Known about the structure:
Elements: H1 4-8, H2 16-25, E1 26-29, E2 34-37, H3 39-44, H4 46-58, H5 61-65, H6 69-90, E3 113-115, E4 118-120, H7 122-130, H8 165-177, E5 184-186, E6 189-192, H9 195-198, H10 200-203, H11 213-217, H12 221-224, H13 229-234, E7 241-243
Parallel strand pairs: 6-7
Antiparallel strand pairs: 1-2, 3-4, 5-6
Amino acid sequence: xxxxxxxxxxxxxxxxxxxxxxxxxxxxxxxxxxxxxxxxxxxxxxxxxxxxxxxxxxxxxxxxxxxxxxxxxxxxxxxxxxxxxxxxxxxxxxxxxxxxxxxxxxxxxxxxxxxxxxxxxxxxxxxxxxxxxxxxxxxxxxxxxxxxxxxxxxxxxxxxxxxxxxxxxxxxxxxxxxxxxxxxxxxxxxxxxxxxxxxxxxxxxxxxxxxxxxxxxxxxxxxxxxxxxxxxxxxxxxxxxxxxxxxxxxxxxx
Length: 254
């Protein structure tokens, strides 16, 4: 039987502190296809951010393993995004996350926090856990994890939660693919974000029976201004896809 004390120490799967910070310091722009982060105002509430990060760091691997998959994935996405904000604030002011660490210290490889019992870096969360083959098999995470760059899908202004995760991931996908600056159909070809090039294998690994990038984007073809879903599915081998340059400038408020 779970005791009252154990209940009081249970992890908050609503991610309330993080949600409150996002609501106050992240703004939808460009009709909701992108967002902007007010890092200066985040800095003024660094104690609340640190309290949330401490809550994340206290979760053990055993506790994490007992959660439903939706709660696990929401936890991982929020952790990645929140620790990314902390990384930016640790090195503030900065014009791009790629400016952090210099030539010999990749910002995504820096062990600057404790997570699931060990010193960790951001790449560990994304590539060794979230993207681990056979674990979640959820390509839409690439529209939820945020690398603090303009080229990246929007940092959502609410926390991800297990019970709403499917809706949130789909909403993030549609918002990103509605941004003609980063994804579009032009002159008879799709021009997509480099995310689809870097992580192409994730989009054609069998999620919902999908085994090609053309098939993944087919349901969003109208959003992109492209041909019909049925036409894409019928002529996948004829679909031409180019990839756009990535804007690594900080997604911050100026």
